[in-house]
Amino acid sequence: MAGRRLSEIAKTIRSKNAGVDKITFDVIFPDRATYDRVRATDVLSVAAICRIFGVSAAQITDHVEFDPALAIKFTMYRRMSSGSPGDADIFGSQQYGPLLDIEVPES
Amino acid sequence: MPASIQHGRSADRSLRIVCPNGHLGFAPIKVGSFHIGCRCEPDLICADSGSCDVGPVPLGADISSSPLQWQVDDLEEMLLASRRLGVPMIVGSAGDTGTNSRVDLFVGIIRELAHKHGLARFRIGYFYSEVEREALRRRIVAGTSVAGLDGRPPLDLATLDATERVVAMAGIHPYIKLLDQGADVIIGGRSSDCAIFAAPAIRRGFPRALAYFYGKVLECASFCAEPYAGKESVLGEITMDDVKITALLPEQRCTVASVAGHAMYERANPFFEHFLGGHIDMGECRYEQYDERTVRLTGPRYVPASELRVKLEGAGKIGERYVGIIGVRDPYTIANIDLVIAWARQQVAERFGNSGYEVHFTVYGRDGILGEREPLRATPAHEVGVIVQGVASTKEVAEEVCMIATRQMFYARLPQVKGTAGGVAFLLDEVMRASPAYRWTLNHTMQIDDPLELFPTFLTEAGA
To answer: What's this model's pTM, rounded to 2 decimal places?
Structure first.
């Protein structure tokens, strides 16, 4: 069955520095049903994130479901600390791009 | 004026703070909602001015990341309101970094504004947050660990020697001390965002758990409201039982979703907020819609730390920096851009060897922003842009490194290339001097005995 893209069903998909050595990602859903539906899949599991970004699980420092915000949130180490020469995203604010096209299977 | 505010305070005993800006000086305060906030009987006007988001350059070079006039304008709005209403004003982490020079800068601005507007005499309290490198050296030599955060190893002497400047992250303590001494305006060195707001609340006897949570939700101003609109003011009210936060811009509301969404913003984990002296656990927090534009918060837990550990931020200079810009349109060259880069690197190495400089290539259109984490890097765009950075201890070498690396991409030797009159397109036939390159050398903690020991406080006066 055809799925929908995460960008079509999430309210907010963003990334941002969490301190100088990590970037945190927030995927926030518009309602409880959508939040529950995505949680029930593994499209944002640690394994899926590692596959998408090509990182090892050891790079993922936090991965939580945050009910009050209807959000799935995870945090990973940066490739280099923010603003070092060679870092092209000092605020960490454009790292979420690869999440937009994630296919979420119909339940 | 929001309906909830027309109805007055929600408890006999409460403390109201207007927060006009989540990073004072970085982008100007939108004054409309701030003026609404000033009509809501605030007990204080508080804003954070710092962030490590701006990267290591401002701390390392001891500069601000924004024009002086923006800082003056924001401080002027806050100061005039504070003096007119007769309520204290607190600014934390002055001038992005909270270094001593930024605190002095802000104190000087306050004095000049007082003179300009002929304000009646008032007291300015301020404190410093810089840590002497020698003090850290003594600790390392004595075998006392300066522990790394976020996977960093303990601080060693080589890293310390490569560090230009270090600030410590203050808690509530210097703010409470200065309020006790009667400061009308406080300019803080580097501090935890939430401490700026928690300090006056804790000083008035409100529960610590709620007070820190109050600071946590207020510190980014309108980022906790929706729809998205930066630099607008919000109003917070703390009672003995809860925290309430109200959007002040007529078009904005605080909702459960917006406030909870903000609670996890730019934090690795939404359940814990750490500061000097402990942390709050927000795992059991409740968020309720209190009225149309206000959210009520309850349930945070305060967990005191078993030992006082202060966070340290430090930046060190790597070298002078030049930047070059090229573009590529030939699909064969794009497909082989890594060979072009390798050629350019090799030409730099033939001139300068393999050490004593850095050269970085950022390939926009392929993986410029994510680097090797880019899942689509195997399918670059029909044209790509490459930003070349050359870094070395002198500007002459940095310029030459950058020039060789940029220009030699033009001469890269690809066997099948059709275009033999130049392999890349130049936007400019030059390389440009950029800010020196710095890096974060310290993201560490160390044990202290007294929460005030790194944060000397001072009182002075301004106005006539």
So the answer is: 0.94
